[in-house]
Every structure is written in structure tokens, then in C-alpha cells.
Design brief:
With about 200 residues, the protein is an alpha/beta fold. The protein has 5 helices and 6 strands; from the N terminus they run E-H-E-H-E-E-H-E-H-E-H. Helix 1 crosses helix 2 and helix 3 crosses helix 4. The longest helix is centred in the middle third of the chain and has 17 residues.
Length: about 200
């Protein structure tokens, strides 16, 4: 399991992030095919709706490579994301994609992330984003993955989520600043990343 990956990514619409994008389906299918050949089975793609998430492309890459791909929901950093006018409304958006699915794709997100802070001072956007993510976690048990800029504000991220009731865990997948516990639920077993409802496809091999 690779927990913090990007199978699709396109930030070229955001001037300050325009250098961050990935090539198309053929290239990424080949990349994951090599991962599969080395014994890999699953990846979590932390490209959310503010980073060029493309469920159809992810499904094609998964089917071509034979690797399960888990989709994410969330907002990224302030330059890439819409303004947050209502925290609970944003939390409901995340919850809807986790429980009901992403648009009409029939695919549910399996993780909240990557939610981020940047090199700039913290502001209302960051506080509201982390609050909304904590609310969505409380209602769904979904794990949360975060992004820092060279580690800046990492301690704040930990404190913000923990103070909102999100338990911290140590994880073999990622650094502790990105690993957060999910509340045990009947719908999300320890094998949630490869489960059909939260995977863009379920390759047979």
C-alpha cells in the first residue's frame, strides 16, 4: 500500500502551482504497472477536487495496471481552493463524497485529503478547512491526510485536529504529521483501501 500518491494531478489552472501536474493515462498506467510487477496492489491518490481529480482517468489507469486506486475528497491549499463560507457545508460536501459517491461516478472517496497549509501565515481558510475535515471525520470515520510546506505549521495541524477530536495514530504508511486514526465502523474495515465501494475499480488480478 502506498498511502500518499498522485495518480492524476493537474494544478495548471493555479499560477503559483502550475508546475505541479502529471502526464496522461498511458504514462501513469505504465508507472503503476511497474509497481504491480514489484508486488504492489493498492495506492491512495490524494488528488482531491481542487487538484484536477479525474475519476474516469483513475478508473482507466486502475484497470490497465491492475492496481486498486483509492480516491480522496477535500480541499488543498488556499490558492487552489474555493473560499469557505460555511464550515458545516464543506464538511457535508466531504461526507457526501465519502458516503454517497463522487458525482455520478459510483465511486466513494476513501480518505479526506490532502488538506493543506502553505508557506504563508495561517488564516481563516486553514482553520475552517481543518475544522470541516474534522467534522467529516467524526461523521464517517474516514482517515485524514495533510500537506505541509517544508514542515511549516505541522504542529498546528496536529493540535487543530486533535483538539477537534481526531485521534492521532502512528502509521507505517506516512509520517505522523499525516497519519490520523479513523473511528471503527462496520462499513470501513481495516482493509478499506481495496474495498470495492471506495476503489475506482476492483481488478481481478
Amino acid at each position: 500500500m502506498l498511502y500518499h500518491e498522485h495518480v492524476v494531478l493537474d494544478n495548471r489552472r493555479v499560477p503559483s502551482l502550475a508546475e505541479y501536474w502529471l502526464p496522461g493515462i498511458d504514462v501513469m498506467s505504465a508507472e503503476l504497472g511497474r509497481y504491480k510487477a514489484c508486488g504492489g496492489t493498492s495506492v491512495v491518490s490524494l488528488t482531491n477536487q481542487c487538484m484536477g481529480r479525474d475519476i474516469a482517468a483513475m478508473r482507466s489507469i486502475s484497470e490497465a495496471s491492475g492496481v486498486h486506486i483509492v480516491a480522496a475528497t477535500g480541499y488543498y491549499t488556499r490558492p487552489a481552493s474555493p473560499e469557505i463560507e460555511d464550515v458545516r457545508s464543506v464538511a457535508r460536501e466531504f461526507q457526501r463524497e465519502l458516503e454517497s459517491g463522487i458525482g455520478e461516478s459510483g465511486v466513494r472517496a476513501g480518505v479526506i485529503g490532502e488538506i493543506g497549509t502553505g508557506a504563508w501565515p495561517l488564516g481563516d481558510f486553514e482553520r475552517d478547512l481543518f475544522a470541516a475535515s474534522a467534522l467529516a471525520h467524526a461523521d464517517t470515520g474516514a482517515p485524514i491526510a495533510t500537506h505541509t510546506h517544508a514542515g511549516r505549521h505541522a504542529e498546528w495541524q496536529l493540535e487543530a485536529l486533535q483538539s477537534a477530536g481526531v485521534p492521532r495514530i502512528e502509521s507505517p504508511w506516512v509520517t505522523s504529521t499525516r497519519a490520523w486514526a479513523r473511528r471503527p465502523t462496520s462499513s470501513r474495515s481495516p482493509g478499506w483501501p481495496a474495498a470495492a465501494p471506495t476503489s475506482v475499480s476492483t481488478p481481478s488480478a
